[in-house]
Amino acid sequence: MTTDERTQETGRPRRQPSVVTAAVSIWAVVLVERIIVFSVMSVLSALRAPDLLPATVVAWVLGLGICALLAWATLLVWRGSGTARVWLGVMGAFALVNVVVMALTGNASWLTLEAVAVIAAAVLLCLPSARPWFPRVERRPRVPEPRTIGWDPQTGERITEPREAADPR
């Protein structure tokens, strides 16, 4: 099967749309920035309050773990995963709520730019030009359960048709 035939069969373009590339690039920049901020803030926190070092280390590990999950989702979006696209969209929605709260309370800072970048990346992944990169997967039919023909009076378990009778294959 040639690449052209595979493209026609799946409906997926051979080249990644530029909006997907831009969104993944934005996520990569945001993740690098988050890792740097987590690391610097953890070091500063440990220097200011050495007695809170265990809590600082736990917070740093949790922050890096969240960044690792987001990096994994970004990699999956790069490969064409629709599920990862949805999860990054959810993160964009959380960022939107964060920006609105920051704007209403007057606490906007340079960290607001990170949230705006995440919102932009989420919007880029939802544009119509990005949709062909995330093909729909055909649903597999469920195997029908065997029909219940009664209940065992002693154990209460259900009695079903034999598998051969239930499965016409």
Structure description:
- Helix content is about 65%, strand content about 5%.
- It has about 170 residues and is mainly α.
- The protein has a domain at about 15-135.
- Helix 2 (about 20-50) packs antiparallel against helix 3, helix 3 (about 55-80) packs across helix 4 and helix 4 (about 80-105) runs antiparallel to helix 5.
- It is extended and about 70 Å long.
- Keywords: Membrane, Transmembrane, Transmembrane helix.
- This is Integral membrane protein.
Structural class: mainly alpha
Helix content: 55-70%
Number of strands: 2
Numbering strands along the chain, what is their spatial order in the largest sheet?
Answer: 1-2
Mean pLDDT: 84
Strand composition percent: under 5%
Terminal CA distance reads 30 Å
Regions with little confidence, pLDDT below 50 for 5+ residues: 1-8
The biggest beta sheet reads:
2 strands, antiparallel
What integer value in Å does the Rg equal? 25 Å
Choose one word for the global shape. Answer: extended
**Quaternary form:** single chain
Helical element count?
Answer: 6
Order of helices and strands: HHHHHEEH
Organism: Curtobacterium subtropicum
Biased composition (Basic and acidic residues): 158-169
Keywords: Membrane, Transmembrane, Transmembrane helix
Protein name: Integral membrane protein
Write the layout of secondary structure elements.
Elements: H1 3-10, H2 18-48, H3 53-79, H4 82-105, H5 111-126, E1 148-151, E2 158-160, H6 163-166
Antiparallel strand pairs: 1-2
Question: Which key terms come to mind for this protein?
Answer:
single chain, 169 residues, mainly alpha, 65% helix, disordered N terminus
